[in-house]
Amino acid sequence: MADKHVIVEQLVKTYPGSGAPSVDHVDFDLEKGEMLALLGPSGCGKTTILRMVAGLITPTSGRIRLDGRDMAEIPVHKRNMGMVFQSYALFPHMSVAENVAFGLEMRGVPKAERAARVERALDLVKLRGYGERRITQLSGGQQQRCAIARSLVIEPQLLLLDEPLSNLDAKLRDEMREEIRDIQARTGVTAIFVTHDQDEALSMADRLAVMSAGRIEQIGTPRQIFDRPATEFVANFIGAGNFLTGTVVEPHQANVPGLGMVVFGLDAPLGKDVRLLVRPHRFTLNGKGENAFEGVVRHLVYRGDTLTLDVDVKDRTFLVDLPTHAGTLPERGDRVTLTVARDDVTVIGTAA
Ligand code: ATP
């Protein structure tokens, strides 16, 4: 633990006048160069955590350490952190270069060095040649890049991003996801970003902390979170799923009432009830062997790359995503056999 770049321990924030804590005994840490996403629904406490790390608000209790130093002793202007806000918070009356130079000026960096560093930062975010423009003459994506350049030019120990992409349209958001990731990899800066968008978190972060009501439900790699959700909340919040409840009657086998025997790869205690999860794209059609469920296609939606089906199997309906390159596709009313490999049946709560 001691060599971690960032360590957050038992962090609590109870705002004055509110009963329940907004952040409730949160622990996490980051390696140098790592990118962590704080992900969760509105009001779960993500921004409050980020603001405590930045020093903008004071924790009720708990500790934040950066390179071993307790941040409680360090006032906000002495913390070497870069922040990118949802609104960008750029100064509209200043040029792009002046905006980017701002943090350097505050830190008393000499003019010549300032100019060189601003150039480098603008290069990094692909805004070379835009230095003299006014902020109002930039597109949304360019403003976002400018905000990133401004936060990186000070060479922060930690980069904090609060919903950095939510003001951009869908296409630009995809581009900027990759770009932020790329900039982060090239600079090696350690970063925490806040989002309520699961795709964004899965595609950008090295690890995700999924939050609910002030607490962290699970921390893990995108794959661990998606394939091995620790709780029902995480399983529901990240991606679509088919949920089954069964009783473990044999090792790796559960009897699901109204469906039959379901085989799974993970260990679960005999005689106990388990919650099972199958992601829609893990089903295949007309396969043979274990976990074969006959049903009828009730509804389908063509989505380009995937075909989404509702398949009625006995008294339940499975949500199924099929790739559309797979030859003949089923039609409404077709009888199909859904199959799923045992390793694609997850037992919720079985940590990876
Ligand atoms: P969002 O995605 O909507 O920004 P969030 O997960 O970032 O949400 P926070 O902004 O951290 O959530 O808020 C967490 C909780 O704390 C909410 O219930 C919110 O109403 C409350 N809260 C936030 N700021 C204050 C404040 N200054 N005073 C009182 N309560 C606050």
UniProtKB/TrEMBL annotation:
Organism of this sequence: Devosia geojensis
Main localization of the protein described in the UniProt heading: membrane
Membrane topology type: Peripheral membrane protein
Name the record gives this protein: Spermidine/putrescine import ATP-binding protein PotA
Known catalytic reactions: ATP + H2O + polyamine-[polyamine-binding protein]Side 1 = ADP + phosphate + polyamineSide 2 + [polyamine-binding protein]Side 1
Pfam families registered for this protein in UniProt: ABC_tran, TOBE_2
Superkingdom classification of source: Bacteria
UniProt subunit comment: The complex is composed of two ATP-binding proteins (PotA), two transmembrane proteins (PotB and PotC) and a solute-binding protein (PotD).
Cellular component, GO, one term: ATP-binding cassette (ABC) transporter complex
Record lineage: Bacteria, Pseudomonadati, Pseudomonadota, Alphaproteobacteria, Hyphomicrobiales
